[in-house]
Automatic annotation (TrEMBL):
Protein name as it appears in the record: UPF0194 membrane protein YbhG
InterPro entries with a match to the protein in the record: MdtA-like_BSH
Organism this protein belongs to: Microbulbifer aestuariivivens
Keywords assigned by UniProt, alphabetized: Coiled coil
Coiled-coil boundaries: 106-138
Membrane-crossing segments per the record: none
Signal peptide: none
Superkingdom field: Bacteria
């Protein structure tokens, strides 16, 4: 007589059931004869990295620790960036001072000196003009020779030219720099500020913060180690939006739709994992490799596998990535064993 398993299943049939599980269809069977679609809990993982190289000075988290968005996770030491910041600060100060000189124009002492020179030239021109007028009268009366009149007229013309030059110099001092010079100085200042912002960005990246609420699942580097740009220091799993991933053969998809509710069981959670409500949000075909089953021996077609993703309708306490999730096939409209 053929021996039977504790569930009342002949050992030959039990071996066939184990072979079905090994195929990877995501199906399991209970002793009651109910078939289940088996999935696992997945969580979005974020790589915590920095854009610039450096040495880890402080590490504030451990594996398994829950963190909140914006929480400081690590500090990176970058002495070169700090030195560049000193240079950038000096560049901003120097460019700002040059722009202030251009914008403000001449110093008050220069304006006073230019005004004094203009007033002195004006006095000289006025005296020369009066002297020339007097010489003109005296020459008309025959008191002075023509030579004296010519000298007075030349002095009047010379002092007038000197006055106009001093007046122009004074106006130039009051007007300050040309608009083009002011624009050039402003451009130099903006360039210096931009260089400083670049260095500041590098220093900001030296403080590594959490990108979202979650749990630190792994730490790849520790204090004192040098890291390269973009290499993850740690991995953060987002525990706020977990989902369950199922692999389902296409001949079992009939009637399953996005938005459909499923009742699942999570064995790892015990009583709390009974009758967990899920909602399907994604149905997508998997890659060709290892996801199809040939039925051509029966004169039919190849079966492909699809990934079905569903989220818990309500938060499930204690849910962790990797946990198994069971959904009765009857929930999918497939009460009988699809293996036949």
């Amino acid at each position: 007589m053929e021996s039977k398993h504790a569930c009342g299943i002949p050992h030959g049939a039990l071996a066939g059931l184990r072979a079905l599980i090994m195929v990877g269809l995501g199906l399991v069977a209970a002793c009651s004869g109910e078939s289940y679609l088996e999935g696992r809990v997945e969580m979005r993982e974020l790589n915590i990295a920095t854009k610039y190289p450096g040495r880890i000075a402080r590490l504030y988290v451990e594996e398994g620790q829950r963190v909140q968005k914006g929480q400081l996770l690590a500090e990176i030491s970058d002495p070169e960036a700090e030195a560049r910041m000193t240079q950038a600060d000096a560049g901003v100060v120097g460019a700002g001072a040059e722009q202030a000189v251009v914008d403000d124009g001449a110093r008050i002492e220069q304006r006073r000196a230019a005004k004094a020179n203009m007033q002195a030239a004006e006095a000289q021109a006025r005296l020369a003009r009066v002297t020339a007028q007097r010489m003109q009268r005296l020459f008309s009366e025959g008191v002075v020779p023509r030579q004296r009149l010519d000298e007075a007229l030349a002095a009047e013309e010379s002092t007038a030219s000197i006055y106009h030059a001093a007046r122009s110099e004074y106006d130039l001092v009051l007007a300050g720099a040309r608009p083009q010079n002011k624009t050039a100085a402003a451009s130099v200042t903006r360039a210096a500020e931009g260089a400083r912002q670049l260095v500041q960005a590098a220093l900001t990246e030296s403080r590594v913060i959490a990108l979202a609420d979650g749990e630190i699942t792994s730490i790849n580097f520790h204090e004192g180690e040098i890291i390269a740009p973009g290499v993850p220091i740690a991995i953060l799993a987002r525990v706020d939006r977990p989902w369950i991933s199922f692999n389902l053969r296409e001949d079992l998809l009939q009637g399953l739709q996005v938005g459909q509710r499923l009742t699942a069981k999570i064995p790892a959670l015990g009583q709390a994992g009974e009758s967990v409500q899920l909602q399907v949000f994604r149905i997508a075909v998997l890659g060709d490799y290892g996801t199809w089953q040939s039925t051509r021996a029966l004169g039919s077609y190849d079966l492909r596998s699809f990934e079905v993703r569903a989220r818990p309708v309500q938060p499930v306490s204690g849910l962790r990535a990797g946990m198994s999730v069971l959904v009765p096939m009857s929930d999918l409209g497939r009460g009988d064993d699809p293996a036949g």
